[in-house]
Design a protein that fits this description.
Order of helices and strands: HEEEEEEEEEEEEEEEH
CATH topology of the domain at 173-262: Immunoglobulin-like
Radius of gyration: 36 Å
Structural class: alpha+beta
Number of strands: 15
CATH architecture of the domain at 173-262: Sandwich
Largest sheet: 8 strands, mixed
Helix content: 10-25%
CATH class of the domain at 173-262: Mainly Beta
Number of helices: 2
């Protein structure tokens, strides 16, 4: 009986140690950038949220970041960047899990990439200098002989043409600002692609799974009577459509469309059985399991309860055998 109980206790201790080796990481990651375009020398911010673990931060030569390389993220991380070169600057964040027995880091979720279009600053217009008038000297002064008009009966009046008034066609939207609102009422700026312009009518954007609703600010032209906005009432996972329809007198209707793609809420993923892969040294690699923290705690409590019940059951059964 003592040997059996000893074996059971040793088995329980080993299982608890293996479960304790599992590292718990968040199952999803959100990433956003506060602007989609700018000029050389402009600064911007990149926000990483919804992840507890180590990430690898990289960028191309068109931007410089204050934080790069392997970094530990505890819930959220804000990175500041500066536009350096003309073109498209990219920022890539790859979540990794540095296992204590694995030879190399292992990807937990897919890498996220955000970009910013960088333009060269336009030169400021130069102010023309007025030449200083010069006074002619007496030698340069010339006299023009007066002409006598022999025809005194006819007088001519030069005709002056009145300038035509140009009517400005201000029937469009001058400005659109889209903002995402999280569950805790935190607001995040949403970048449109391409950057909003009054003569472009179709746009796209991506929002993270943590965004619960959208808010839109708009500025209409002088000849626009009304703007009807639809599609802001419900934000679901996948593709959403927001339309802004303009109405004005003596004008045909115009419609601006914004396609909003919301990321799906990620749960447990990339589960690999323990000991499935074997390294070059012949030692089985223990793979980490991505799961919420509360699930991990509940599993440990249940395992301890089951082990205690098994020990008492074996002791009780052996006691009955001795009595019989």
């Amino acid at each position: 009986m003592k040997k059996k109980q000893f074996k059971i206790i040793i088995t329980c201790i080993i299982s608890l140690v293996l479960i304790g080796c599992m590292k718990v990481y968040a199952a999803s990651m959100g990433m956003s950038i506060n602007k989609s375009s700018g000029y050389i020398g402009d600064t911007f911010t990149v926000t990483i949220s919804g992840i507890n673990g180590r990430v690898n931060i990289t960028s191309n030569s068109n931007v410089s970041l204050n934080i790069t390389g392997s970094q530990w993220v505890d819930g959220s991380l804000t990175i500041t960047g500066t536009a350096k070169g003309v073109g498209t600057g990219t920022i890539t964040v790859t979540p990794v899990d540095a296992s204590t027995t694995a030879a190399e880091p292992e990807e937990v979720t897919k890498a996220e990439t955000r970009s910013i279009t960088i333009k060269e600053k336009e030169p400021e217009p130069s102010t023309p200098t007025n030449p200083t008038p010069t006074t002619p000297t007496p030698s340069q002064t010339t006299t023009t002989p007066k002409k006598t008009n022999t025809n005194t009966n006819k007088t001519t009046t030069p005709k002056t043409e009145e300038p035509k008034e140009e009517k400005q066609d201000d029937f469009y939207i001058n400005k659109v600002v889209l903002t995402g609102v999280k569950e805790n009422d935190e607001k995040v700026d949403i970048s449109l692609s391409p950057e909003f312009q009054k003569d472009i009518y179709e746009y796209t954007c991506h929002v993270g799974a943590e965004i619960q609703k959208l808010e839109l600010e708009k500025e209409a032209g002088d000849y626009t009577n009304s703007i009807i906005v639809t599609g802001l009432e419900e934000l679901k996972e996948g593709e959403n459509s927001i339309t802004l329809q303009l109405a004005a007198e003596n004008h045909e209707a115009k419609t601006y469309t914004i396609k909003v793609t919301k990321e799906a809420q990620k749960t447990i993923e990339n589960i690999v059985p323990v000991g499935e892969n074997v390294s070059k040294t012949g030692i089985a690699e223990i793979k980490t399991i991505s799961m919420p923290l509360w699930v991990f705690i509940v599993m440990q409590i249940l395992i301890i309860i089951i082990e205690v019940l098994i020990i008492y059951f074996i002791s009780w059964r052996n006691l009955l055998k001795k009595k019989n």
